[in-house]
Write a structure and sequence with these properties.
SKA complex subunit 1, 58% helix, mainly alpha, 267 residues, 5 strands, 3-stranded antiparallel sheet, two-stranded antiparallel sheet, microtubule binding, Arc Repressor Mutant, subunit A, rod-shaped
Length: 267
């Protein structure tokens, strides 16, 4: 026996004696048919209860295993939630965008456009000859300076970027792109339209054209004056630092001459 005290031993012996007394009482009823049927029914119900208890124990065991798997899943969800919160808190305000080929670029590459035999390109004359028409010239889209990635910014030497942070660089890129877009919205207009514009627009147009050189042919660029008048970026030491970073990362290149520095957009 596992009992260690006399009181526990006495309790166990008392239970056994009581069970024996109950058995003697039931033995007197062994000849009674009704009692036997009752005992048989009780025995059957006890067997059914034992089977039911076994099924319940098995179900409890399965639920315990299921609970363990849910605990593991909970940990994974919490880790994922933690990572998502970290990504949300540290996501840059501006992300580099994948360059998409525009319709004008595709047409310049010969991938789109009307076939040579279409009605737009050929006109039949009275004597049956076909005159090939010239296609309408389309100006290339104005390129934009692409945002820096976090890795690119981190690779810039400390002596170049100084105290400039990552978000400040991309904010400055927004202003530079604004200046480029505003300038070439004027330069891209036909001269006939410019001649009908105000004197201020004419002066701007002539000034933009006077800054073009052989080295800037086919290149979109701005100068210090454009940044001051066409954007909200101040040409202070921070702006100069940003331009140096962009030149270091290959976003712009400088063309000097004629008393000004041209910041050309690299594409």
């Amino acid at each position: 026996m596992d009992s260690c005290t006399v009181m526990e031993l006495a309790s166990q012996f008392g239970d056994k004696i009581q069970n024996l007394k109950n058995c003697f009482k039931l033995q007197a009823c062994s000849g009674d048919v009704n009692c036997q049927q009752l005992l048989t029914g009780i025995d059957k119900e006890i067997c059914e209860l034992e089977v039911l208890m076994a099924l319940m124990r098995a179900e409890v065991a399965r639920e315990k295993e299921h609970l363990k798997s849910l605990e593991v899943l909970k940990e994974q969800v919490l880790d994922l939630q933690k990572n998502l919160h970290y990504a949300n808190d540290n996501l840059p305000q501006r992300l580099p965008q994948k360059k998409v080929c525009t319709k004008n670029e595709a047409s310049e590459n010969g991938t789109t456009g009307s076939p040579l035999g279409s009605k737009k390109d050929a006109v039949s004359s009275e004597n049956g000859t076909v005159v090939q028409g010239a296609r309408k010239r389309t100006r290339p889209p104005v390129p934009a300076i692409e945002y820096l990635t976090k890795d690119e910014f981190e690779e810039v030497p400390k002596y170049i970027k100084g105290r400039i942070n990552y978000d400040s660089v991309n904010l400055a890129i927004d202003e530079l792109n604004k200046a480029v877009s505003a300038k070439y919205s004027i330069v891209g207009k036909p001269r006939s339209v410019i001649m009908k514009s105000s004197d201020a627009i004419k002066k701007q147009f002539d000034q933009f054209k006077s800054q073009e050189t052989k080295e800037t042919k086919g290149v979109h660029f701005i100068v210090d004056g454009d940044i001051k008048t066409l954007s909200s970026l101040k040409m202070d030491s921070s702006a100069r630092c940003v331009l140096t970073i962009l030149r270091h990362c290959g976003r712009i290149k400088e063309v000097r001459g004629g008393g000004c520095t041209r910041y050309c957009v690299c594409v």
